[in-house]
Write a structure and sequence with these properties.
This protein is of the alpha/beta class and 265 residues long. 41% of the residues lie in helices and 24% in strands. The chain contains ten helices and ten strands. Strands 6-7-8-3-9-10 form a six-stranded mixed sheet, with helices on both faces. A four-stranded antiparallel sheet has the order 2-1-4-5, with helices on one face. Helix 6 links the parallel strand 7 and strand 8. The chain is globular and about 55 Å long.
């Protein structure tokens, strides 16, 4: 990976809440254009890591550099410019219930100013279309959408400013298998067509097989190991072996193999 551009660099990260230490000495590199899946057992701080890198909470120690900028020492203008280069989609979509889908997607656009209302509307409609929502979805409120449609609306908002990096927190949680597979395909397609780097927190083995170029495993308060799904099969660690060799892992692997065979046909 030495020849690939590092767009996220985490060194010596420490996150703690009171006396509870979640991360201690955590290091991680994320490369441009890849989809990296973040996995780990309950309490390993997968979402905490996402929120820290995305600037939503301040660590107790360590450094986070995103796109060449120190995320925590940058001056306010540099920080604002950096935040415009990434988008975040939370597990529940985190949409404003009092705004239509279109208005939700326009929220990040309003923050940058100097954008005519008709331009913002047209751009929002484009993003809504890109995530596979029907044209009339823009006029609906979140309460009028299915869970899968709300997630797509959340993704459209994350893409509002044409980001280079997208952070996704459990994007397929709560979806049925068909809806989850469709969302996986959407993420993969958008990443490839737009050149996005995707930082994806998930517990879904199907998503790891279908979408991720690499996986980072959180354990023992750090990133224990990174590599491809195939690399994970040779890791000799109790949690990693249980997760990647268990019945659900075999089912996901069989499903991925069947999908590959179908594509070759």
């Amino acid at each position: 990976m030495a020849d690939r551009e590092t767009v996220i660099e985490v060194r010596g990260l420490r996150n703690q809440f009171g006396d509870h230490v979640v991360h201690d000495g955590l290091d991680l590199d994320v490369y441009r254009g890849e989809i990296i899946g973040i996995v780990g057992g309950s309490g390993t701080g997968k979402s905490v890591l996402l929120r820290t890198i995305a600037g939503l909470q301040t660590p107790a120690a360590g450094q986070v550099r995103v796109l060449g900028t120190d995320a925590f020492t940058a001056d306010p203008d540099a920080r604002a410019a950096l935040e415009a280069r990434w988008g975040v989609m939370f597990q529940d979509g985190a949409l404003f219930s009092s705004l239509t889908v279109r208005e939700n997607v326009e929220v990040p656009m309003r923050a940058i100013g100097d954008l005519a209302p008709e331009t913002a509307r047209a751009l929002a409609d484009l993003k809504i279309s890109m995530v596979g929502l029907p044209p009339n979805a823009g006029d609906k409120y979140p309460s009028e959408l299915s869970g899968g449609m709300r997630k797509r609306a959340g993704l459209a908002r994350a893409l509002a400013l044409d980001p280079e990096i997208v952070f996704l927190d459990e994007p397929t949680a709560g979806l049925d298998p068909i809806g989850a597979a469709d969302f996986d395909a959407l993420i993969r397609g958008l990443s490839r067509s737009l050149g996005l780097t995707v930082f994806l927190v998930t517990h879904d083995l199907d998503t790891l097989h279908a979408v991720c170029d690499r996986v980072a495993v959180l354990a023992e308060r750090k990133v224990l190991v990174t590599g491809t799904m195939q690399d994970m099969l040779s890791v000799d660690h109790p949690w990693v072996r249980s997760y990647f060799h268990g019945p659900r892992a075999r089912a996901a692997l069989d499903g991925a193999a069947a999908g590959t065979a179908k594509e070759e046909d």
